[in-house]
Amino acid sequence: MRSIVVKIGSSSVTRSTGPDPVVLTSALDEALNAQAIDWNVVLVSSGAVSSGSAYLARTGNINPSQRLAAAVGQPFLMDIYRSVSEVSGRHVCQLLISESDLRSPTAISSVCAVLNECANAGIAAIINGNDIIDKTGSDNDAIAVAVAVATGADKLLILTDVSGVYNDFLDDSAHLLDLSVPDISAVRAARTGTGRGGMRSKLRAAELAANNGIETHIAAAKFPGVISACIKNEPVGTRIPAARGRFGAESRWISGVAMSYGSIVINRPAEESIRAGASLFASGIKKVHGDFLGGDVIEVRAPSGRLIARGISKVSATLMTLVRSMQTDEIAIALTEILHKFLTGGHLSGDHTGHLNARDPLSRAMGLIGSHGYELTRELALEIMTLFPSATAAAMFDIGGDEGLRRLRERYARLSSDLSFIDRRRLVVF
User: Fold this and answer.
1) CATH number, domain containing residue 124
2) Predicted local distance difference test score (pLDDT) of residue 167
3) Do 55 and 162 lie in a common domain?
4) Which tens digit of pLDDT belongs to each residue from 235-268?
5) What is the pLDDT of residue 195?
6) What is the C-alpha to C-alpha distance for residues 262 and 308, in angstroms, rounded to an integer?
């Protein structure tokens, strides 16, 4: 049985008075009917927050939080889906996926196992993000891609309130019929509707799916028979074809399942280096975006915005921002200054003024280190100790002196020459 993941956005499933039963009924009917032609449809349905907000606004003077609105709205969505399924004698089930689940291969493996059971039993699976748990609200575009990649889906269909992708939202006379991955970064996408991310979020999802061997369509939820048409390879919305074949199961967690918590921009030599099989070092990193920690999956992009790779960062965004574009001896200076400031009560070393005439990356880092408060300095110091435990421990009690600082700096310089910020074994290049 072939499979398709269909994501329906908030702006498509919600009216001013609550969930739109016409859109929801049509989507589930098509999902149930697809089984007759050997297709399994997984629905990723947004709309809990907007549905709950609309209901509470209509029934009383309540100004709910996003979490309360989601808790009120989710049963409304499932009531509609269940009433549709009961008419046809079929069954539906609900799965809520949180950001913490997208950090856990074990959790996603459990989700895939349930979805496989659903497909075998003819049960339509309805997925939504867990807005009650997630701090900033669920990203159902990211969840839809994760499910598509993890389950090996054949297609991803993202339904929204516009007919497709427009190259310029100032001119909406006609949407693009086809959009290749290299051209995605050039699209001038505007934020529309009531969802979390707008069209740019959908394009990122399509880009990631295409780089994982999955064809994606972005289309109007109210287009008659849109799911059936997509399954039958009829023209639907904007088509983003697969850009390559699928990765093996061992690479899919990094390549498309795990949620990305930030991104970095690298220069051309660094891109050539990782494509040749090398790890990613600080000298090739131009910009850092996001608030990721060591162990988080991040995206690697070209200056144009093109997605190059995804990998697991060894360090936090804060530390990577400090040492980006640096050479190994400069990294050593920055790291030892952080430790010196932490261990000596908030002061830089006596010779730090000599670095003010250094290259721009080091001068910039020294200014940032000097401005850091105690808590941030402490966090960075502990992160450095974790990176280089033996070298740090050996010099810990002598770092207050110039000789101890010099020896530690020499050791850090040697160690930094092999410090990859994303190890090649934990990097998937597209």
Assistant:
1) 3.40.1160.10
2) 77
3) yes
4) 999 999 999 999 998 899 999 999 999 999 999 9
5) 46
6) 14
Tell me how many domains the chain contains: 2
- Reading the block at residue 214, the tokens are 């999955």
Domain shared by 266 and 183, yes or no: no
| Sequence letter at residue 429 | V
Regarding whether 223 and 113 lie in a shared domain, the answer is: yes
Question: Residue 157 phi/psi, 5° resolution?
Answer: -120, 120
Could you tell me if 166 and 239 lie in one domain? Answer: yes
Query: Distance (Å, rounded) from C-alpha 71 to C-alpha 68?
Result: 5
The tokens describing 98, both together, are 């949180």
Of 7, 77, 23, nearest in space to 48 by CA: 77
**Does residue 65 share a domain with residue 109?**
yes
Q: Is residue 144 within 8 Å of residue 82, measured between CB atoms? A: no
Both 215 and 278 in one domain: the answer is: no
Cα 62 to Cα 50: distance, rounded to the nearest angstrom? 14
Rounded-to-integer distance, Cα 158 and Cα 385, Å = 45
Measured CA to CA, the distance from residue 134 to residue 99 in angstroms comes to 6
Domain final residue pick, 188, 220, 252: 252
pLDDT value, residue 394? 64
Provide the pLDDT confidence category of residue 35 given band limits of 50, 70 and 90: confident
Residue 194: the pLDDT is 45
User: Which residues are CB-neighbours of 306 under 8 A, at least 6 positions away?
Assistant: 182, 185
Both 238 and 353 in one domain: the answer is no
Query: Hey, what amino acid is at 403?
Result: E
Most confident residue range from 18-27, 289-298, 356-365, 412-421: 289-298
Task: Name the pTM for this structure.
Answer: 0.87
| Percent of the chain at pLDDT exceeding 70 | 92
Domain hosting 116: range is 2-252
Q: Chain-wide mean pLDDT for the chain?
A: 89
